[in-house]
Amino acid sequence: MNDSTAIRPVVLDIWCDLECPDCHRALDDVRALRARYGDRLEPRLRHFPLEKHKHAYAAAQAAEEAAEQGRGWPYVEAVLARTAELPAKGEPVLLEVARELGLDAEEFDTALIDGRHLLAVDADQAEGKAIGVTGTPTYVIGDERLDGGKSQEGLRGRIEEIADRLLAGV
Fold first, then answer.
1. pLDDT classification of 6: cutoffs 50, 70, 90
2. Are 85 and 43 in contact (CB under 8 A)?
């Protein structure tokens, strides 16, 4: 089989606010989906920082810096694991997580000051608004949007149904 006939992974966009407790709880589903589908599913973090979360915008920028340093998902998971700390401690948590993962924390600090990732975060947020994202987490797979901000109940099963159908080419 040559590259042109290889199956492309199904893309799962996850609109996320890194200060959101619901997004933290959704991580278990994302991990289960990754375990089930492996490289046949490509989960992509899309930034949707909510105004009610004071540090979500900075966290989104920090996640972009982590991706640039090659540790995007581990960083996202580590920050989401600390959603309870982030409101109280703020940006120092973002730098602590960077250090814990062996990333260049000084570069994180500089990136947050110089705003080099603002455009990426703003572009995600604008696209999310354009397709009707209003809360987090929200998933988009195929051409279907699933709102996890209201309830996570049954979402993983629904994502699996859609992924199975897309992978089967139906």
1. low
2. no
Full-prediction pTM beyond 0.85? yes
Asked whether the beta carbons of 47 and 80 are under 8 A apart, the reply is no
Question: What does the chain come to in residues?
Answer: 170
Say which DSSP state 112 is in.
Answer: H
Q: What is d(CA 96, CA 160) in angstroms, rounded to the nearest whole number? A: 35
Q: Please give the helix or strand (H or E) that residue 141 lies within, else none.
A: strand 138-141
For 132: left if phi > 0, alpha if psi spans -120 to 50, otherwise beta; the answer is: left
Q: Which residue has the tokens 């933290």?
A: 24
Distance from C-alpha of 143 to C-alpha of 83, rounded to nearest angstrom: 30
Q: What share of the chain is helix, strand, coil (3-state, %, to 5)?
A: 55, 15, 30
Gap between the Cα atoms of 65 and 48, Å rounded: 16
SS3 111: helix
127: buried, middle or exposed (CB in 10 Å: 19+, 13-18, 0-12)? Answer: middle
With pLDDT > 90 as the criterion, what percentage of the chain qualifies? Answer: 85
Q: Classify residue 14 by its DSSP letter.
A: E
Q: Which amino acid is at 129?
A: K
Q: What is the pLDDT of residues 61-74, one digit of tens each?
A: 999 999 999 999 99
- Asked whether 145 and 139 are in contact (CB, 8 A), the reply is yes
